[in-house]
Specification:
The chain has 815 residues and is α/β, with parallel strands linked by helices. It is built from 33 helices and 24 strands. The chain is 36% helix and 13% strand.
Length: 815
């Protein structure tokens, strides 16, 4: 008999969506694919996402909804209600009162009504989770206009992306909107699982800017506080990174010393391998023209496929730089079936997760026409919830949950970090012979004592966890690991696909010991398929999934987001775990869940494939310009002296004009009377055609003014603008200080350092996320082995003597 497969949220979550745009759309899609019932409340003109045709694309057929809308709303319902109608207002109120959760984003016809502010929705729908996603969060939200582009400038990532001879560079593809929706979905589902237990709703307050601070830089404020200097002084690409080939571009990520040696061998440069200074990133940057030019000369003589296959043999992180068309033809993607065609012929990426067992995603449907479901919802508005609040105080929603964290670097540990911040007992497993690789990103470059405790990134992404070391090469180490997993609710790992089965930690074996176990496997390219054994870092995934293709200037090579795919992929894995927990609550069954970094990246970059299949055109790099608005860009202002020797003094601001009204306001503010009176510039298409001319006028105005003056003038005029801040300025922003985004944590080696919090704030707590510092290597060996696994004290001593456990990284540590 075939087992019935059911989406985890089927019949368990009813959501009213008052949002417009990408963030709300992606949040709703994630929930709908998990089985939630989503009803989008639209005004008479519909969500503007329906009309998101890019760069002059015309809808085909006439009046058709844009491909991104059809992708995001494929499993949702649409009702139309007029915000000017008292009858419709009561209808929407009734919908909300009957809902488990509400998605709210400012800018929609219903969200902008004063009576439908999130704090007021909480009053008339006290049992609902109300998710609010805004630019700066509801707490201390400033009144000035902003958008995804200007928020990236305030996130500091552009300050070291690209090259020193050009302007700061943002990540392409509306990156910030997608991640805001992702953090919103995680926050909503977390709060729903808590409110289901208590019968009491809560407000979940998500800040898009906070999301930028978590994902755009690798704990650079932590680095700055500990080192007394910025992580990087200049904008510079790593070498090697992305290089031209005979037929495209190929991307590398050479991180370790061994990888550099292997890369030099591959391109036949033994003199580089013998030069110890070139193992360091900064030394290669200092010789940029020589090193980069030599690599370019080698790659341009070969095809992309030839280079990728050769680099894979050397176990180097490598990927072709793929776009919206080539990714659909990739052998790995095809074999895994990671693109599907829905009933209306739309080719879209699969969900970022795969469940093995009785859980599954909801089958993709067809996006609703405007108001398709209005009559049915008017006739069957659900009865108001009647559950009685339990009065159970649960400020830590995951208290009582235990995770075995077999992960390394950033993409893996951030999965367990979310649960640790919200109360779970997360036990990070390493070994003294092979500690978590991110420990090697240390401030003790001389590898002196406790160098392994001096990594800002490790300290930033492992607070609240416990740490044990087990030598997985030994029989006893593997046996203790299996015993640990048998005591846990969840096992997470992001090693290459062969590692855990070799250790005897395969799902079938562990399920026999622990039937309720949720096992999450999150390697770079998945657990099977042609690329399953390939090494991957965040940048490798960015190169493969399309993020690099749309990041950079059109006259230059692609660029990378700079590691942001690590936290983005890790957060996608968190969402999959929340689905698995809901499935276990309803069925009692554990799950094996696969969440590759690659599929998370494919989903965030879905618009490239959707546009290609719907219109036949590839979305390309536009630098700091936009696919949807004009003018937009980075504009030089009066230079300032930097407080650190070696830092360039160039200063820039981000300006983005989203509407015709903002265009008129910009022209008035900068005195561009000649531009404001031109009829051809009255539309975004006309302004895009004259972008170079407009940029020259804007730059002429900004170049002689200080950044603060430009920002103040344009904000008063109502134009989205922001300074491109440096990483050492991140903690000083009033917008993040108002939310206490950074929490000071006292660490034994780095001292007291600020660590970034989480983009979602929960009304019912916790108020502080980093309650305990990150653990020292093997700090909790005795507590975990004795108290949890029942190992006798004398055996713990013997295990330490034999090197099965320990607290110091072994000499000659390798990754």
């Amino acid at each position: 008999m075939t087992e019935l497969r059911v989406p985890p949220l089927d019949g368990a979550l009813f959501v009213v969506d008052l949002s417009v745009g990408i963030a709300g759309g992606y949040c709703g899609k994630l929930l709908a694919d998990g089985g939630a019932e989503i009803v989008k409340v639209e005004g008479p003109s519909g969500d503007p996402l329906r009309r998101r045709w890019l760069m002059g694309d015309a809808p085909s057929p006439e009046g058709a909804d844009a491909p991104l809308f059809r992708h995001m709303l494929a499993s949702s319902a649409s009702v139309v209600a007029d915000p000017g109608s008292a009858e419709d207002e009561e209808f929407v109120r009734a919908l909300i009162r009957s809902a488990d959760a509400v998605i709210w984003v400012p800018g929609g016809p219903w969200a902008d009504l004063p009576d439908f502010h999130p704090t007021l929705i909480r009053r008339f729908a006290p049992r609902a989770v109300v998710l609010a996603m805004t630019n700066f969060g509801l707490v201390g939200e400033p009144s000035y206009p902003a958008n995804e582009f200007t928020l990236q400038a305030l996130g500091a990532g552009p300050s070291f992306r690209g090259s020193a001879d050009r302007e700061p560079l943002v990540v392409g593809g509306a990156y910030g909107d997608w991640i805001t929706g992702l953090f919103g979905a995680v926050g909503l589902l977390t709060a729903h699982q808590r409110s289901r237990d208590t019968g009491v709703g809560e407000l979940v307050d998500v800040s898009a800017l906070d999301g930028m601070h978590l994902t755009q830089t690798m704990f650079t404020p932590t680095f700055f506080a500990a080192a007394g200097r910025p992580m990087r002084l200049v904008r510079a690409r790593t070498i090697p990174l992305i290089h031209p080939t005979q037929d495209g571009f190929v991307g590398f990520q050479v991180t370790t010393g061994q990888q550099w040696q292997d890369f030099c061998a591959m391109i036949d440069k033994p003199d580089w391998a013998a030069d110890p200074t070139l193992t360091r990133f900064d030394a290669r940057v200092a010789r940029f023209d020589e090193v980069n030019g030599t690599i370019d000369a080698w790659t341009i003589e070969r095809s992309t496929d030839e280079i990728v296959e050769l680099a894979a043999l050397f176990r180097l992180p490598v990927a072709p730089v793929m776009d919206g068309r080539t990714i659909q033809l990739c052998e790995h993607v095809v074999e895994r079936g990671w693109f599907v065609e829905n009933d209306e012929g739309l080719v879209q990426p699969e969900t970022h997760y795969t469940f093995y067992g009785t859980a599954c995603r909801r089958p993709f449907g067809v996006a609703p026409t405007l108001g398709r479901d209005t009559d049915s919802y008017r006739q069957r508005v659900r009865a108001e919830k009647v559950e009685t609040p339990t009065g159970i105080a649960k400020p830590l929603p995951f208290e009582g949950l235990r995770l075995a964290d077999f992960t390394a670097f950033w993409a893996g540990p951030i999965i367990g970090h979310y649960f640790a911040m919200l109360g779970a007992d997360v036990i990070h497993v390493e070994s003294t012979q092979r500690p978590d690789g991110i420990r090697a990103a240390t401030l003790r470059f001389d590898m002196s004592d406790q160098w392994w405790e001096a990594s800002p990134t490790f300290n930033g992404t492992n607070t609240n966890k416990r740490d044990v070391t087990l030598d997985m090469r030994s029989d006893r180490g593997r046996e203790l690991a299996r015993q640990l997993v048998s005591k846990c609710d969840i096992l997470i790992e992001n090693y290459s696909s062969r590692v855990l089965p070799q250790w005897g930690l395969d799902y079938e074996s562990m399920r026999a010991m622990n039937p309720g176990l949720i096992m999450v496997r999150a390697p770079g390219f998945g657990i099977n398929g042609p690329w399953a054994d390939r090494v991957a870092y965040a940048t490798t995934v960015e190169q493969a999934c399309g993020a690099a293709h749309v990041t950079g200037f059109p006259d230059d090579r692609p660029d990378v987001a700079g590691g942001s795919m690590d936290p983005v992929a890790g957060t996608h894995a968190v969402f999959a775990i929340l689905l698995a927990l809901e499935h276990r609550r309803r069925t009692g069954e554990g799950s094996l869940v696969e969440v590759p970094q690659f599929t998370s990246g494919m989903n965030v970059c879905a618009e490239q494939t959707l546009t290609c299949t719907a219109t036949g055109r590839l979305l390309e790099r536009v630098g700091n310009r936009s696919w949807t608005v004009a003018p937009q860009g980075a504009y030089r202002v009066r230079d300032v002296e930097r407080p650190f020797a070696g830092m360039p003094s160039d200063d820039w601001v981000a300006i983005s004009v989203e509407t015709d009204e903002q265009w008129s306001a910009l022209c008035g503010a900068i005195g561009a009377d000649a531009l404001s009176g031109r009829e051809d510039l009255g539309t975004v298409e006309g302004r895009r055609a004259a972008h170079d001319e407009i940029d020259a006028v804007i730059s002429g105005w900004t170049r002689t003014r200080a950044s603060d003056d430009v920002v103040k003038t344009l904000r008063v005029a109502g134009v989205p603008v922001a300074p491109f801040i440096q990483t050492y300025e991140m903690t000083g922003l009033a917008e993040v200080q108002a939310r206490d985004l950074y929490e000071d944590v006292d660490t034994p080696v780095l001292g007291e350092v600020p660590i970034v919090g989480y983009p979602a704030r929960f009304e019912r707590g916790p108020l502080r996320l980093h309650r305990t510092r990150a653990p020292l290597l093997g700090e909790h060996n005795r507590a975990v082995l004795q108290d949890l696994l029942g190992v006798l004290p004398e055996e713990v001593d013997r295990l330490a003597e034999e090197g099965v456990i320990g607290t110091k990284a072994a000499t000659g540590t390798a990754w």
